[in-house]
Design a protein that fits this description.
Elements: E1 4-5, H1 11-28, H2 31-41, E2 43-46, H3 52-67, E3 68-69, E4 73-76, E5 81-87, H4 97-103, H5 106-115, E6 125-131, E7 147-153, E8 164-167, H6 171-183, E9 194-195, E10 204-205, E11 213-217, E12 221-224, E13 233-241, H7 256-263, H8 270-275, E14 276-277
Parallel strand pairs: 1-3
Antiparallel strand pairs: 2-11, 4-5, 5-6, 6-13, 7-11, 7-13, 8-10, 8-12, 9-14
Helix pairs in contact: 1-4, 2-5
The structure holds 2-oxoglutaric acid and fe (ii) ion.
2-oxoglutaric acid (AKG) is lined by residues 137-138, 143, 149, 164, 218, 222, 224, 237.
Length: 285
C-alpha cells in the first residue's frame, strides 16, 4: 500500500483511549440482554453509542488506515467506494487503539459467544469501507455464511448516504433454510440469499448519527442503502463467523460430499425460486 508509515502512539495515549472506550461500553451494553434481543429480533441498534470525541479519534484512525501503510492493513475491492481490512492478529499494541479497543472489546466477544455458540471466530478481520459512488451499496440479502456483525457509522447516515436497513425476525426463516440446504448436501455458493424485487420485505432503515452501532445476525435480511450524488458514508464493521459451517463455498471435486450432491441434490422448496436468487446470479451485493 502507498503512503507514509502509521503514526505510533505513546503507551499512555493508548491506555487512555482504551479506558474511555471500555467505560462507555460497560455503561451502555448488557451482553445478556443484547444477545437475547439479537436472537429474537435479529439486530440491535445503539443510537449514538459513542460521543463526538471518540468518533473524531475513530475517524482519524479510519483515514490513517487508508492513507498510511502497515502490515496489518490490506486493500480490497469495493465498487461503491473503497475498502481496507485490518487483520487483528497482526495489530501491534500502539496501532489503531480506538478501533482495537472498540472492536476487540470482550463485551462483543461475550455477545458473539452467546449468539453463535459453536467455535465462532471473533472479529479476526475488521473491515473499513468508504462509500462515495452514487449507487446502491448492496441488494436485500442475508449473508452466505452465518455470522454476527457489529457495524459502526462514522458519519451521520440517512437515506441519502446509504443507511443500513434490516428486516426484523427474518433471520429465523433464513437460518432454517440454510441449515436444511446444507444438511441435504447443498453447496454454500448455491444458497438463494438475495430477496427478489417482487417480494415486499419490511425493512427498518437506520437513519442515525455518527457513533451509532448496529449489531446484527447476518441471517436477517439486510441491505446497504443507496448514495445520492455527492454523498459519502464511512463505516467500520467486525465479523464473528459461526464455526459449525463449511469453510469453503463449494464441495471438492469428486469428494464424498460432491458425489452426494450430484446424485441427490438438495430439495429447495419450489416457492423459494420465485422469492430468492443466489448472489452469483444477481447484481453485486
Ligand atoms: O454496508 C452495508 O450497509 C451492508 C453490509 C453488509 O451487507 C454486511 O456487512 O453483511
Ligand atoms: Fe451482508
Amino acid at each position: 500500500m502507498e503512503g507514509q508509515q502509521l503514526r505510533r502512539l505513546r503507551p499512555e495515549q493508548v491506555n487512555s483511549i482504551n479506558t474511555q472506550v471500555t467505560s462507555v461500553l460497560q455503561s451502555k451494553i448488557k451482553p445478556l440482554q443484547v444477545s437475547q434481543a439479537i436472537k429474537k429480533d435479529g439486530a440491535v441498534v445503539f443510537s449514538k453509542l459513542l460521543d463526538s470525541h471518540l468518533i473524531s479519534i475513530l475517524n482519524k484512525e479510519f483515514d490513517e488506515a487508508f492513507n498510511h501503510s502497515s502490515r496489518c492493513v490490506s486493500t480490497g475491492e469495493h465498487p461503491p467506494g473503497k475498502a481496507v481490512t485490518i487483520t487483528t492478529q497482526l495489530l501491534e499494541a500502539d496501532q489503531f487503539p480506538a478501533i482495537a479497543s472498540l472492536f476487540l472489546n470482550s463485551i462483543f466477544e461475550d455477545i458473539a459467544d452467546e449468539v453463535l455458540p459453536t467455535n465462532s471466530t471473533f472479529h479476526d478481520r475488521i473491515a473499513l469501507t468508504h462509500e462515495f459512488q452514487p449507487t446502491a451499496i448492496t441488494d436485500i440479502h442475508f449473508d452466505m455464511k452465518r455470522s454476527l456483525k457489529c457495524l459502526l457509522y462514522l458519519v451521520d447516515t440517512d437515506q441519502t448516504n446509504g443507511a443500513f436497513s434490516f428486516a426484523t425476525e427474518t433471520h429465523v426463516e433464513n437460518s432454517a433454510y440454510r441449515r436444511s440446504f446444507l444438511d441435504q448436501g447443498g453447496q454454500l455458493r448455491d444458497l438463494l440469499n438475495i430477496a427478489s424485487e417482487s417480494e415486499s420485505i419490511p425493512l427498518r432503515t437506520v437513519c442515525a448519527p455518527a457513533g451509532t452501532l448496529i449489531i446484527f445476525d447476518a441471517d436477517v435480511f439486510h441491505q446497504g442503502g443507496t448514495l445520492q450524488p455527492g454523498k459519502e458514508r464511512k463505516v467500520i464493521r467486525g465479523r464473528s463467523l459461526f464455526g459449525g459451517q463449511p469453510v469453503s463455498s463449494r464441495h471438492t471435486w469428486c469428494s464424498r460430499s460432491w458425489w452426494r450432491y450430484r446424485m441427490n441434490p438438495p430439495k429447495t422448496p419450489t416457492d423459494y425460486y420465485g422469492r430468492r436468487s443466489s448472489r452469483g446470479r444477481s447484481r453485486a451485493a
